[in-house]
Structures are given as structure tokens and as C-alpha cells.
Amino acid sequence: FSLKKIRKRKIPRLRRDIGMISQNFNLLNDRNLFENVALPLHIVGCEKKEIRDRVIALLIEVGLEDKAYEYPWELSGGEQQRACIARGLVKDPEIILADEPTGNLDPSTALQIIRLLERINRKGTAVLMASHNYRLINELGHRFIEIKNGIIQSR
């Protein structure tokens, strides 16, 4: 499809099909982990039971079910990143846009995050990730696109 020709009324639907994972977490400090992950569902008007079920399932998926009622400042960097991944997935998007999802993490935690994104991808969600970590990318063996000196190259 062409973004230039998309009708304005279809933009909210397009946004629902895209999940965002940011490098700097963007978690709300006045809300616990459950509330942070649930926020996109509240915004689109989901029922409370659906919100609860989806959030709990995702927290289990990312290994944070025991941290649901903790606040962002109580979590490690890796836990905060996994919370961002859960929030990015909560609307069951077709595409995940991940901006440096491992940028602020130690190598071990970064690898855990990459493996989690791979599992998500195997379940059918497209993952588009921006990263400067060439070593990690090369180890994965996945296709990647590089922009070098203004030239786009696929590898």
C-alpha cells in the first residue's frame, strides 16, 4: 500500500497494526507494569476482561508475571525493555518497529531480548529492528538491511 494515498480515517487502523518498542523504554513512572502494558488497550477502548487476559498472557510471555505490580524504577534495564516489548505486542500488531531495543542493555540481556523478538517473529509478527550492534546482528544470521553512506544494501 502507499502511505501517500491512505485515507485519514484509515490511519488509526494502521496504527493499531504497528507495535513500537523504543530504546529508552518510555514507561510511565506513575503507573505499575500492568498499567503501562495495558495503556494501549485502554486507549482503543477494550473491555476490562480482555485487557486483563492479554496483559497477563504477555507478561508471562516476556517472563515478568511476578513483576506486574511493580513500578518502572523498581525494574532492571532488561525488565524494563521486556515491559516495552509486552506493551508493543499488546494490540497484537502485524509489525513491530523496534528502535535499538538492545542499545541500553548488557550483552547477556541483549541476547535474551533478541531471542524474544525471534520467538515473536516465528509466531507471525514481522519485526523491523534498528541497531548499531553489528556483532549481534551478524550472529543471528537473519537478513538485514544496512544504510551505508546513504546507500541501502540488503544482506
Find the count of extended strands (DSSP E, 2+ residues): 5
Instruction: Report the major sheet.
Output: 3 strands, parallel
Instruction: Characterize the overall form.
Output: globular
Number of domains: 1
Question: Which architecture per CATH?
Answer: 3-Layer(aba) Sandwich
* Distance separating the two termini: 24 Å
- As a percent range, the share of strand residues is 5-15%
Helix content range: 40-55%
SSE string, helix = H, strand = E?
HEHHHEHEHEE
| Average pLDDT figure | 88
Low-confidence stretches: none
Radius of gyration over alpha carbons?
A: 16 Å
User: Order of strands in the sheet with the most strands?
Assistant: 1-2-3
Structural class: alpha/beta
Number of helices: 6
User: Quick one: CATH superfamily?
Assistant: P-loop containing nucleotide triphosphate hydrolases
Highest CATH level, the class: Alpha Beta
Structural account:
This protein is of the alpha/beta class. It has one domain (3-154): P-loop containing nucleotide triphosphate hydrolases (Rossmann fold, 3-Layer(aba) Sandwich). The chain contains six helices and five strands; from the N terminus they run H-E-H-H-H-E-H-E-H-E-E. The strands form two sheets. Strands 1-2-3 form a three-stranded parallel sheet. A two-stranded antiparallel ribbon has the order 4-5. A hairpin with a 2-residue loop joins strand 4 (145-148) and strand 5. The mean pLDDT is 88.
